[in-house]
Design goal:
β9 (about 340-345), α13 (about 350-360) and β10 (about 370) form a beta-alpha-beta unit. It is built from 14 helices and ten strands. Helix content is about 55%, strand content about 15%. α1 runs antiparallel to α2 (about 15-25) and α2 packs parallel to α8 (about 185-220). The chain has helices at about 5-10, 15-25, 50-65, 90-100, 115-125, 130-140, 145-175, 185-220, 235-245, 290-295, 295-305, 315-335, 350-360, 380-415; strands at about 35-40, 70-75, 105-110, 125-130, 225-230, 260-265, 275-280, 305-310, 340-345, 370. The model is unreliable at about 1-25 (pLDDT under 50). It has two domains: about 5-195, GTPase HflX, N-terminal domain (Rossmann fold, 3-Layer(aba) Sandwich), CATH 3.40.50.11060; about 225-390, P-loop containing nucleotide triphosphate hydrolases (Rossmann fold), CATH 3.40.50.300. The chain is globular and about 70 Å long. The protein binds guanosine-5'-triphosphate and magnesium ion.
Length: about 425
């Protein structure tokens, strides 16, 4: 069902009580289908290559929803317009294309403001999604457990609440008093219900967060080091998790096969066991609101003793460079410093010579530690385990040293104050 159709349904039901029921229906509506146009506003006129990688990723995500991509419309402009994000002339071109090709959905790479989305839907008369909403559509398709569903709903409400508020406000202002009109009462009622729902989900997530922190604390007390496998979707995180722990979690070439974290112990020897954690995949230009909504998953990444940043050596050099620097930046934003990261280049089985060549060319690798493997063909997994142990040993030694320096400093400050 298209967003336009969903809005029409809401507009048909004018009683105050049915308004909220319909709002619920929109949140649970089926994914978009059919034919799509990709649209992007390129704000850097000197960008001749990176935008292509971003658009290709958008295309992959759209195709993962079984939507056929008919064409792409790109505009270069320093600033987005307030009304449509792209300029008026481009909107006309888009409208022509939507009509001629009978397009069902226009997918924007740029994140749209509520007013821009509403204006585009009204002008184009078809469904309009941005990168954030598209990612959520895929999450929804792949989600099977209640925690993932809760986090998806939180993320959806974060983005959709302002849109619904705007939509309800416009309708309320355009409406005349009549027997079945929604009126001011219904508008405020809808906003109140929305805010309540957001607050309820927020407190449920906070409760789960407390539980998770207690669990992490217990794990720390037992002194089992945790190793988190992070990276972009499809990098092979679950394949590596299964290969290292003997588990058999689902592996798939579709994006976001893993949504909720998976845990498994691996005994390295009689004295050491490691807890491996498989996590949700990253996407390029991850929206901070999505990070915030998935903080339950990311708490494990933040608290892990070591994070493996998994990358596909099969990507071309530019994509690999982008993913590596974005991945490190994302981890830093979550609270994981570079010294706690080990970069792992996966899929070297595809073409070992290309793999080593690409890795040599990545200048950034002078400042990070890395290793090459094939999770699927189990190449160099022992080498990876050795590096993990080495790094964990250094990190604990480092942490102990930092701790004693901090203690000394506190003691000396105390002595000085006396
Ligand atoms: N050739 C090759 N393919 C691999 C390797 N590791 C994983 N794959 C393939 O890559 C695809 C994605 O693997 P997953 O393990 O599901 O990747 P993921 O990172 O867990 O993906 P998400 O859960 O979607 O984030 C699958 O088709 C795997 O068979 C590898 O070492 N070599
Ligand atoms: Mg996975």
């Amino acid at each position: 069902m298209s967003v336009k159709a969903k809005i029409l349904i809401i507009e048909k039901h004018l009683s105050a009580s049915s308004l909220f029921l319909n709002f619920k229906m929109v949140l649970q509506a089926p994914s978009p289908q059919g034919k799509a146009v990709l649209c992007m506003l390129r704000t850097d006129p000197h960008d001749h290559a990176v935008y292509r990688i971003r658009l290709d990723e958008l295309r992959n995500l759209v195709e993962a929803l079984n939507i056929e991509v008919i064409t792409e419309i790109i505009q270069t402009r320093i600033k987005p317009t307030a009304k449509y994000c792209i300029g008026k002339g481009k909107v006309k071109e888009l409208l022509r294309c939507v009509k001629e090709e009978q397009i069902d959905v226009v997918v924007f790479y740029n994140i749209l403001r509520s007013s821009q989305k509403l204006n585009l839907i009204r002008t184009l008369n078809c469904d309009v999604l941005d990168r954030y909403e598209l990612t959520l559509e895929i999450f929804e398709k792949m989600a099977s457990d209640s925690i993932s569903k809760l986090q998806i709903e939180a993320a959806r409400l974060n983005k959709l609440a302002p849109y619904f508020k705007l939509e309800a406000k416009i309708r309320f202002h355009n409406e005349h008093a009549f027997l079945r009109s929604t009126g001011e009462y219904a508008f405020h009622n809808q906003i109140r219900e929305l805010t309540k729902r957001q607050a309820r989900i927020h407190s449920q997530i906070e409760e789960l967060m407390k539980k998770k922190r207690r669990h992490i604390q217990k794990q720390r007390e037992r002194e089992n080091p945790t190793v988190c496998i992070a990276g972009f979707y499809n990098a092979g995180k679950t394949t590596l998790f299964n290969a290292l722990t003997g588990d058999s979690k689902p592996v798939n070439s579709e994006p976001f096969t893993t949504l909720s974290n998976k845990y498994q112990r691996r005994y390295v020897d009689s004295t050491l066991s490691l807890i491996f954690i498989d996590t949700i995949g990253f996407v390029l230009d991850l929206d901070p609101r999505l990070i915030q909504s998935f903080r339950l998953n990311l708490e494990d990444v933040r608290n892990a003793d070591l994070v493996l940043l998994l990358l596909e050596v099969t990507d071309d050099l530019l994509t690999l460079t982008m993913k590596l620097s974005e991945g490190l930046k994302l981890l830093k934003n979550i609270g994981v410093p570079k010294k706690r990261v080990l970069v792992v280049f996966n899929k070297i089985d595809v073409d070992p010579s290309v793999g080593s060549e690409v890795v040599k060319k990545l200048a950034i690798l002078r400042t990070v530690e890395w290793v090459t493997i094939s999770a699927k063909e189990r190449i160099n997994l022992n080498g990876l385990l050795e590096r993990i142990q080495e790094k964990l040993y250094l990190l604990t030694a480092y942490q102990k040293r930092e701790h004693s320096i901090r203690l000394k400093r506190i003691n000396s400050e105390g002595a000085f104050r006396k």
